[in-house]
Amino acid sequence: MFSLMCNLRRISLAKVNPTFRYYAAIKTAESHRKSERLPPGFGKTTPFSLFIKENFASRKNEQPTEVFSNLTKQWKNLNEADKMKYVDEASRINEEKRSKFESMSETEKEELREQAKNLREARLKRRIRLERRKKREGQRQMSGWMLFVKEKAVKGVADIGKKQQDIIRELAVVWKSLPKSEKDAYNERAKILSNDGEICD
């Protein structure tokens, strides 16, 4: 009963104040979140990730770490009414994903789960092979991610004066938001450098 009264109060306040509407949407999404973990391709989309995706592409001439830092500040300074646009869009996307998944037959769902399992196992085997190779060769093989960090992190530290771990953390988010074509370009360059004997420090 108490929980029901709180939900009703939250809904009533949400109709009056955008701030309450924003937090009501967050709480409602959390309360209706199902326990089943969806397979790859159906993962949760967050309002912040939509904001980053929408604004990051227009700042390609800036350093990624600087862009991410500025966009993070902009997100924090957005009023709740403006954030609701991204909250609503994220909710819509997540609902579409879940509806699409739930509309599948049990056979299709099981195939997706099996694909996800095989993907995890393949990644684990690949990681083990790489670790064994590194141990044998006594050096770390260059990857697209390592090359990306090598090119961006040092300048990021010099420009912003942040700690290295903070730069790496922000670059990881930027790397995840890069288009597949750009990641492939980094991976291809890293492969060439590795074949030429280049290693990651």
TrEMBL record:
Pfam family, one: HMG_box
Domain called HMG box: residue spans: 46-105
Domain of life: Eukaryota
Keywords of this entry: Coiled coil, DNA-binding, Nucleus
Coiled coil spans: 102-129
CDD domains from the UniProt entry: HMG-box_SF
MF term (GO), any: DNA binding
Record SMART domains: HMG (SM00398)
Annotated DNA-binding residue span(s): 46-105
Keyword Coiled coil attached: yes
Coiled coil as UniProt keyword: yes
A single cellular component GO annotation: nucleus
PANTHER family: HIGH MOBILITY GROUP B PROTEIN 12-RELATED
Name of the molecule in the record: HMG box domain-containing protein
